[in-house]
Amino acid sequence: MSEINVYRVSSNLQYGGVSPTTRIKDGKRQPVFPNDIKLEDWDIYPVRLIKFTTDVNFIPYYAGNNFIVDETAKALLQPLIGACGEFRPVKVGDRLYWWFKCTARYDCTVKGMIEGRIGLPELNMWSEVNRWVFDPVKVRQAPAIFYPHEYPTALLCTDVLKDVIEKSGLVGLTFQHLWNSTTGGEWVKRPPLLGPVAEKLGKELEDKWEKNKKKYGLLYNKLKDKEGITLS
């Protein structure tokens, strides 16, 4: 039986980012996050565009691992991940993108073997996972993309999704290797927010913005209609 890998999949800030311009409010005028809005209540919201956002297929959306996809990426991925979530429209100028809201939850870890910092022991919810341990049998049956029970803000996938994306040549997603069915889990740690290492990472991000601007072009400059966009 061939090896199988698990990755954390996310959009990448080196390509910029898009988020709602103002705080979205529900029917009672209370502020809510996009994740809290039901599909039937979803609307086209004005957006804020980071000035370094480049014209790629996947762009970070509002927070965490969330991303929007362009028409090319949606056409490719909908048959593969359509059952794992919802494609919600996000208008950026005259272009239509889709935020993929993943709704798939899948439990495939080996209990008691994860390393990291647990937040709610009674619920087996973790605030940080440094080393994952997965059940190979369950992983082979996993959805193409999913949230794990222990860490429901991290989007995970296997080689199935990664191979499709990489073969397509689409740009904008990052795959962080977490686990291999033969060699086990890799040690991963959040990058620091302060200090020399954080400063170095910040400089590297700025360099990537400049390189990507030249390679892909800035999205804002390519839009014919910039209505509803705030540039930051």
Automatic annotation (TrEMBL):
Domain of life: Bacteria
Protein name: Uncharacterized protein
Organism whose genome encodes this protein: Acetobacter cibinongensis
